[in-house]
Design a protein that fits this description.
mainly alpha, Serine Threonine Protein Phosphatase 5, Tetratricopeptide repeat, 2 domains
Length: 306
């Protein structure tokens, strides 16, 4: 029973740490800081403003005036270091990107957070812009802050069409960020079910991130659909894998009071007797959620004789 071990509050703190809260925060900060770059400002040079709004003609006029094609934004928060091409790749049009590339803009220029035009385009612009940058030779494996590649950002943002383009161009689905997370793990953490399925045949079922989590553990923790959990199991992911905090897929599903996933995992042979670093079993986790919708069914499933 839960009262025989640590309190539910303390144990849940362990859970939050175990799922790599720092990694999730890093991704959220990456997304938030990039979204903040979308607005224009009176302090921006006209070429950056034109690039951000995708105005190809205004860009041509600025270049004709002698404005350097790789002019960087200086000391404006998260936009610091952005070139016109980075701005256009983020929120501009293919026409704006084309004008800058024809003017010999550096295709792999980096901003203050080492993000390239392709990384921005993969997360926030259209597949057409991504395809244009790929065709012109953008580095597929360039990493921005946190070690995120274009493919990882597309996975986090749920941009399956962009992911497909990057993969067809040769992007490495097993490359990892600073937390040892690959694109499929990031897709699982972000609830990107289509992206996860796209990467499934290319995934390493034994791969673990810095917290010891597999893609299966991330998917269960994020509440992935039961049919997707079944697909992961069919692809060889270890049903009883435990992360560095000792948490298994069954424990994570029990903590979410996810009776459908608990039922699937038990039917597929998950071990309910496994214990985490605090000595808790899946039943302990389920009992700590008593009163939450679905918890009674989960407790019944876990208390049933084997």
């Amino acid at each position: 029973m839960p009262n025989q071990h640590q309190s539910p509050f303390i144990a849940r703190v362990v859970l939050v740490v175990a799922i790599g809260a720092a990694a999730i925060l890093g991704l959220q900060q990456f997304v938030a800081s990039s979204q903040a770059s979308a607005t224009t400002s009176d302090s921006l040079h006209p070429i950056h403003e034109a690039a951000l709004r995708g105005d190809a003609q205004a860009i041509r006029e600025e270049l004709a005036r002698g404005t350097p094609v790789d002019l960087r934004i200086h000391q404006i928060g998260r936009r610091t270091g952005m070139t016109p091409l980075i701005c256009a790749a983020f929120s501009g049009t293919p026409q704006a990107v084309r004008v800058l590339l024809d003017a010999q803009a550096r295709i792999d220029a980096r901003d203050i957070d080492r993000r390239t035009p392709l990384i921005y385009a993969a997360g926030w612009n259209t597949p057409e812009v991504v395809d244009l940058l790929i065709t012109e030779g953008a580095q597929l494996e360039a990493k921005g802050r946190g070690g995120y590649t274009a493919l990882m950002i597309a996975a986090a943002r749920g941009r399956t069409d962009t992911m497909r383009l990057l993969l067809e161009a040769g992007a490495d689905p097993r490359n990892t960020n600073d937390w040892d997370q690959s694109a499929i793990m990031i897709a699982a953490m972000s609830g990107n079910t289509d992206g996860l399925r796209l990467l499934l045949d290319k995934a390493d079922p034994t791969a673990r991130d810095r917290e010891g989590r597999t893609t299966l553990l991330h998917a269960v923790a994020a509440g992935a659909p039961t049919d997707l959990i079944a697909e992961l199991l069919d692809h060889g992911f270890d049903i009883d894998a435990q992360d560095d905090a000792g948490l298994s897929a069954l424990m994570l599903a029990a903590d979410r009071a996810d009776h459908e996933t608990v039922a699937l995992l038990l039917a597929r042979g998950a071990d309910p007797a496994l214990t985490d670093a605090n000595g808790w079993t899946a039943l302990d986790w389920a009992q700590s959620r008593r009163g939450q919708a679905g918890s009674d069914e989960v407790i019944r499933l876990l208390e049933a004789p084997a």
